[in-house]
Amino acid sequence: MISNKLRLWEAALCFTFGLALLSGVWSSASADALAGQVLRLHVIANSDSQADQDLKLQVRDGVLAQAGTLLENVSSREAAEELLTAHLEELARTGADIVGGAGYEYPVSVSLETCWFPTRVYDTFSLPAGNYRALRVVIGAGEGQNWWCVVFPPLCLGSVTEEVAATAAHAGLREDQVSLITGRDGGYVVKFKLMEWWDSLIQALGLCQ
Fold this sequence. Notes:
Blueprint: H1 2-35, E1 39-44, H2 50-70, H3 77-85, H4 88-101, E2 108-117, E3 120-121, E4 126-127, E5 130-139, E6 146-152, H5 161-170, H6 175-182, H7 188-204
Parallel strand pairs: 1-5
Antiparallel strand pairs: 1-6, 2-5, 3-4
Helix pairs in contact: 1-7, 2-4, 5-6
């Protein structure tokens, strides 16, 4: 009798695990598709001192404003990346000017890189964990807390969910992707955490490099 109960429990566990695997595959694929249409912004402070953290936000605002102007008429991530690549030095100078104007001599470097980001929940939208192309701004030693958002589409400039949704849709995100990041379809945080769990699982099993 006990053996039968154990077999039923094992079967239920395997069934649940199988569903989780299928959900993980679907969620991971959805996240990958979304990442292919988004260009993140990653600003890293010189240190965790209050002054350096405040300076990070000033540099963020300056770079985000300049990038927003450059990308005003851009409608794809690929085009956004190409345009920003041509203006990396200019963006770095903008950051350096802000740092110098605040009385510091930290160097500022700006590059486009592929980086892993954890699940991030903002006021009006969320993004799942995954590898994203990112405009990376490093101030000084780059040893302080960082700030993440999205440079394309310019979602971080949206003040309400409806505005974020319209911006995302204009940049070519599908309706289901817009619903996913804005939470319109419900349960998006759980879905994003499932994606993180799935990525951790396949890495632990050696299924990806």
